[in-house]
Amino acid sequence: MRAVINWLFLTALSLWIGSIGFITLVLAPALRAHFSEEQFYQTANVLLPISFQLGLILGFVTLLISLVRTFRAERPKRLLKWVSALLFIMLSLTIFGSYGLLPQMQALESGAEQVRLYNYTQGISLLNLFFGLLSLLFISMDVRLLPGSPTRTRGYSLRF
Predict the structure, then answer these.
(1) Which one of 29, 30, 79, 143 is most buried, counting C-beta atoms within 10 A?
(2) 49-94 pLDDT tens trace
């Protein structure tokens, strides 16, 4: 059961980080290069809510599993607490972007205010990408993902 939960956690987190990276670093610059400014912001008004809704779903799944893993861990929880804190920050930023910035952005027709709000959503996405990659780094440093069992003298053995 633990392997399934770990798989679900890593899959959801990877999908979340991957979707943020794809939309922010690949799709948005490509759309900006091929469309006029008005068409680009109309397209962004369609794509960004989908991105943030996906982030909300995957964020709730990853944060819930992370909290359960943190509270059920028998070993030191320091890295697990950091991962949970980073995921909480990511989810908070996603909620703010989804329910704070996007409705304001969609209410505007065009102009400097829409550009400013779009830049804020991109900033939120870049922060989420950074925090997500940092949480993956902490997860990779978590010794509970290593195979084998701990020994008293030499750390972890690689017995399967």
Answers:
(1) 79
(2) 999 999 999 999 999 999 988 888 766 577 888 899 999 999 999 9
Q: Which helix (H) or strand (E) holds 30?
A: helix 28-34
Residue 124 CB partners (closer than 8 Å, separation 6+): 93, 94, 96, 97, 101
- Widest distance between CA atoms in the chain: 66
Global pTM value = 0.82
In sequence order, the 6+-apart residues with CB closer than 8 A to the CB of 95 are: 56
Domain range list for the chain: 2-143
d(CA 160, CA 152) in angstroms, rounded, equals: 18
Q: How many CB atoms are located within 10 Å of the residue 105 CB?
A: 22
Work out the angle at residue 51's Cα, subtended by the Cα atoms of residues 64 and 14, and round it to the nearest 5 degrees.
Answer: 50
Alpha-carbon distances, residue 29 vs 25, 34, 46, 101, 122 (angstroms): 7, 9, 16, 20, 11
CA-CA distances (angstroms) from residue 60 to 76, 113, 115, 124, 125? 24, 30, 29, 17, 16
Query: From CA 79, how far away is CA 83, in angstroms rounded?
Result: 6
